[in-house]
From TrEMBL:
Cellular component annotations (GO), alphabetically ordered: cytosol
Function: Specifically methylates guanosine-37 in various tRNAs.
InterPro entries: Alpha/beta_knot_MTases, tRNA_m1G_MeTrfase_C_sf, tRNA_m1G_MeTrfase_TrmD, tRNA_m1G_MTases_N, tRNA_MeTrfase_TRMD/TRM10
Main location: cytoplasm
GO molecular function per UniProt: tRNA (guanine(37)-N1)-methyltransferase activity
Protein species of origin: Rhodopseudomonas rhenobacensis
Subunit structure: Homodimer.
Location in or out of the cell: Cytoplasm
Name of the molecule in the record: tRNA (guanine-N(1)-)-methyltransferase
Gene: trmD
Principal EC category: transferase
Amino acids binding S-adenosyl-L-methionine: G113, I133, G134, D135, Y136, V137, L138
Signal sequence annotation: none
Gene Ontology terms describing biological process: tRNA N1-guanine methylation
Reaction it catalyzes: guanosine(37) in tRNA + S-adenosyl-L-methionine = N(1)-methylguanosine(37) in tRNA + S-adenosyl-L-homocysteine + H(+)
């Protein structure tokens, strides 16, 4: 069975959306991964099919009901063990390491929040892991879920053409990526750095490593400080 994601949303028409085109879309069409989209509203029980209600304790907006969402999760996930995520600005920020972990698993169930958020009790009772895609607030979890899925799908076996490209890009070695160039050789008086056209692969690799370190130190000192160190020979034990 291929990697399969299940998305619970009030706006199923937002899927596959951008995941239906290009790399992810071709992989979806050829069965390298599968996407199941469930309308949370199908689990509503009252005659108005309501999914939300006013916040306990007062305040603006509406909150997704725990009973409705729990029923939707149970219907989608009967007897399955897989990561259960809920997109949330309060969640742990998504990282490439987390993306790689999810891509290596069976595929997650993802709950997309709306309104002011969802009743805490369903997060606790169904063991939902809160995941954020950044320190800003979207109007719903759908775009966040699309971003997470896009990042996962491109890592699945057979999805990316060239095997190496996933290994070399930003974050895979704890550094931001070195600058890239292509033809023409001269663009508005700016040449491609000479070393890249020298044909000396070792020099090119060293230049890229140095540029990546320079860029990361300047832009993301937080990443630079915690980057994994390349393997070094241990010094011989002194007795
Ligand atoms: N009142 C909530 C708060 O302050 O944390 C914000 C709710 S937001 C308007 C509605 C939904 O969008 C959230 O339940 C979540 O699913 C999604 N969302 C918004 N920003 C997000 C982010 N940065 N990462 C992931 N999901 C986000």
């Amino acid at each position: 069975t291929p990697w399969r994601a299940t998305v619970l949303t009030l706006f199923p028409e937002m899927f596959p959306g951008p995941l239906g085109v290009s790399l992810a879309g071709r992989a979806l069409a050829s069965g390298l991964w599968a996407l199941e989209v469930c309308d949370i509203r199908d689990s509503a029980t009252d005659k108005h099919r309501s999914v939300d209600d006013t916040p306990a304790g007062g305040g603006p907006g509406m909150v997704l009901r725990a009973d409705v969402l729990a029923a939707a999760i149970d219907a989608a996930d009967a007897g399955e063990t897989r990561p259960r995520l809920v997109m949330s600005p309060r969640g742990r920020p998504l990282t490439q390491a987390k993306v790689a972990e999810l891509a290596a698993g069976p595929g997650p169930l993802i709950v997309c929040g709306r309104f002011e958020g969802i009743d805490q009790r369903v997060i606790d009772a169904r063991g939902l892991e809160e995941v954020s895609i950044g320190d800003y607030v979207l109007s719903g979890g759908e775009i966040a879920a699309l971003a997470l899925l896009d990042a996962c799908v491109r890592l699945l076996p057979g999805v990316m053409g060239k095997q190496g490209s996933a290994l070399e890009e930003s974050f895979s070695d704890g550094l931001l990526e070195y600058p890239q160039y292509t033809r023409p050789q001269l663009f508005e008086d700016r040449p491609i750095p000479e070393i890249l056209t020298s044909g000396d692969h070792a020099k090119v690799a060293a230049w890229r490593r140095a540029e990546a370190e320079k860029l990361t130190r300047a832009r993301r000192p937080d990443l630079f400080a915690t980057r994994p160190q390349p393997n070094r020979q241990k010094p011989p034990k002194s007795t």
